[in-house]
UniProtKB/TrEMBL annotation:
InterPro entries: PAP2/HPO, PAP2/HPO_sf. The chain crosses the membrane at residues 23-50, 62-84, 119-138, 173-194, 215-235, 241-261, 268-288, 294-314. The keyword Ribonucleoprotein does not apply. The keyword Disulfide bond does not apply. Keywords: Membrane, Transmembrane, Transmembrane helix. Residues 62-190 form the Phosphatidic acid phosphatase type 2/haloperoxidase domain. This is Phosphatase PAP2 family protein. PANTHER family: AT30094P, SPHINGOSINE-1-PHOSPHATE PHOSPHOHYDROLASE. Pfam families: PAP2. It comes from the Archaea.
């Protein structure tokens, strides 16, 4: 399928990036963190656990659907990268041109940002940013106005997409495709979740969040990830098989975790959230560190996601046993 998305697909983005001052490139290298997978899932988990009625009509349902949207977005990325299998720009591999004025302590960080392996189309950061910040803007419906939320979320997503071109780990077409895929995923996930704004139903759209159900989106993410794993395995792309496996585990874990909650729970107490964050974080790190063992990665990821999604039900269950 590489003929559909050519390996040489730049449209001037690299030349523009080369013309920018080094300071600007370093700033964009920091901006790109706003859509790192670890950052997005941590931020969404915190919003899911702690958000109250001042932020969303149904904060637990809104948070779970946002997590499901990003899970679907990454599943789509895994399938797209395995399907098209086209490389990143040449600047993403090899030696990094670290600015001489950058402190030694930041040199390693900068090098890690501007070097990246794997396939390039579509951009995972652009897709994840569009899905995450688009979902937050649409689901946390009691913050600001809808217009302001969408402009802010869209602005962050575009900034992240631009950062991937500026640091030369993606072509412009990669990030544009990512933004479109991420935006489409948000609409599709909210439709699957039963959001009245996208169902065209005659019910009161102001309270549509009360009935949101992330389960179909989690299961869709798992199914798409299965397809991605098959395509990656057929092409001999080991790294993409692992990424697809993580997508399967995340989708399945999210669906299982949601079975354990009612969706109407209050915010999670800090005394419970802090140790839970340590446990789930350790499981996530272990999943990636032990990526050579696909079975261990799948188990660790599934357990982490089940714990994240089911956590709001834990305080009531603990109280019932005391």
């Amino acid at each position: 399928m590489t003929g559909i998305v050519p390996a040489e697909r730049g449209i001037g983005g690299t030349a523009l990036a080369d013309a920018l001052p080094e300071f600007v490139v370093v700033v964009f290298a920091a901006v790109t963190h706003l859509a790192d997978p670890w950052f997005l899932f941590a931020a969404l988990a915190i919003a899911y656990w702690f958000a109250g009625d001042r932020l969303a009509t149904a904060p637990r349902r809104a948070g779970a659907v946002a997590i499901a949207a990003v899970t679907c977005a990454y599943a789509a990325v895994a399938l797209g990268k395995a399907w098209f299998a086209v490389p990143r720009p040449p600047g993403a591999m090899g030696l990094a041109d670290v600015p001489a004025w950058l402190p030694v302590l930041l040199s390693g960080w900068y090098e890690a940002q501007v070097l990246s392996d794997g396939f390039g189309f579509p951009s995972g950061h652009a897709t994840g940013a569009a899905a995450a910040y688009g979902a937050l803007a649409l689901l946390y419906d009691r913050v600001w106005t809808a217009r302001r939320r969408l402009l802010t979320g869209g602005g962050v997503a575009v900034a992240v997409a631009a950062s991937r071109v500026v640091i030369e780990v993606h072509y412009v077409v990669d990030v544009v495709a990512g933004l479109l895929v991420g935006g489409g995923v948000v609409v599709g996930v909210l439709w699957l979740a039963g959001d009245a704004r996208f169902r065209g139903s005659g019910v009161d759209r102001a309270v549509g969040g009360l009935e949101l159900d992330p389960t179909p989106a989690f299961l869709l993410a798992a199914a798409v990830s299965v397809a991605a794993a098959g395509v990656a395995a057929a092409g001999g792309h080991t790294g993409e098989v692992v990424e697809a496996g993580i997508g399967i585990a995340t989708g399945v874990g999210g669906a299982i975790g949601w079975l354990l909650v009612d969706g109407d729970e209050p915010a999670v107490p800090v005394r419970i959230a802090v140790p839970a964050l340590a446990v789930t974080g350790s499981l996530w790190v272990g999943a990636y560190v032990l990526a050579d063992s696909l079975a261990v990665t799948l188990v660790a990821t599934t357990a982490a996601v089940v714990a994240v999604v089911a956590l709001p039900a834990l305080p009531e269950r603990l109280a019932g046993t005391l």
